[in-house]
Amino acid sequence: MKINRNKIVIVGAGLVGSSTAFSLVTQGICDEVMIIDINKSKAHGEVMDLCHCVEYLNRNIKVSEGDYSDCGDADIVVITAGAPPKSGQTRLDTLELSANIVKTIVEPIMETGFDGIFLIVSNPVDVIAHYVYKLSGLPKNQVIGTGTAMDSARLKYFIGDLVHIDPRSVHAYTMGEHGDSQMCPWSSVTVGGKKFIDILEDNREFDNVNLDEIVQRVTRVGFDILEVKGTTCYGIATTVAGISKAILNDENKIIPVSTLLEGEFGETDVFCGVPVILNRSGAKDVVEVHMTPEEKEKFKKSLGVIREYTKRLF
Ligand code: NAD
């Protein structure tokens, strides 16, 4: 008999890793959360604190600290080790640091026979996810970056706020790089089934809405938060929890994560944020949303940025 334990390992117990653990535990998304950090006392502290949540939760979730040798039976390994960009830096500026760190993480994990899903959060997430794909040798469906999942949640929030609708009734994605070059295929955005561009045209109160400015707000807001509190954590933590839930519960939910393109949108050999069907197999399929020629051009340009940085690693 085999009872699946739904075990998630989080590597990196910093602000993003610990908030992710809190989100997984309080939402009861898995049976077991294990935390690993090079700073063992930090991991120990987070684990002790989280264990004391159990009395007031809906279910008893096992929270423990561990080592890479404990990853062999994990369903998902979330990598958040790294450091947020410093003031004035972009996510791409943290490439070398993150690449060096993930190398020391992926190799010992693969030695355990790990055959689950790597979920990469460390930035620049598209390039690092590609690097983990190469280092691990796992099939492409088993290596996923958080991509533009967080950015798309922000986009939905801004659109919802503008038209006074619950963001969850908005269907919208940003795509491409989780970074300054990401774009939005506005021609595919709908609110309650109605095209967003038609909503803007039909209502004079939206005459001054500038779509490029909305995308700029999405790309800048992470840095606005960074300026005032040093990092962003709750949004990304909830995003990781949502992606993990879609995978473990075999939901077939569509979330824009970073995956390897192999011909979709006419592109190959690049990890980038695109809508993906997520289920127990990981990244099952890419949804090729409609894009106008102008949108395709912006998307291609964003992939060019990712490719340029990916080339620095291999
Ligand atoms: P942080 O500095 O608070 O935490 C990083 C943690 O990683 C620290 O606890 C550190 O000890 C640990 N660490 C460093 N090297 C390690 C190693 N070799 N093995 C194990 N642990 C190691 O940083 P943070 O704010 O939690 O951000 C972490 C990463 O997440 C950054 O790369 C950041 O840019 C990224 N991030 C991504 C998104 C996204 O949307 N993808 C959003 C926010 C943050």
Task: Tell me, rounded to a whole number, the average pLDDT.
Answer: 96
Low-confidence stretches: none
- Give the helices and strands as they follow along the chain: EHEHEEHEHEHEEEHHHEEEH
By secondary-structure content and strand pairing, the structural class works out as alpha/beta
**How large is the radius of gyration?**
19 Å
Helical region count?
9
Could you say which small molecules are bound to this protein? nicotinamide-adenine-dinucleotide
Number of distinct beta strands:
12
Q: What's the main sheet like?
A: 6 strands, parallel
The helicity comes to 40-55%
Strand order of the largest sheet: 3-2-1-4-5-6
Outline the structure in words.
The chain is an alpha/beta fold. It is 41% helix and 18% strand. It is built from nine helices and twelve strands. The strands form three sheets. It has a six-stranded parallel β-sheet, sandwiched between helices. A three-stranded antiparallel β-sheet has the order 7-8-9. The protein is globular, with a radius of gyration of 19 Å. It starts with 6 loop residues before the first strand and ends with a helix. Bound molecules: nicotinamide-adenine-dinucleotide. Residues 11-17, 37-39, 42, 80-84, 91, 94, 98, 101, 104-105, 121-123, 125, 146, 150, 178, 231-232, 236 line the site of nicotinamide-adenine-dinucleotide. Nicotinamide-adenine-dinucleotide binds at residues 11-17, 37-39, 42, 80-84, 91, 94, 98, 101, 104-105, 121-123, 125, 146, 150, 178, 231-232, 236.
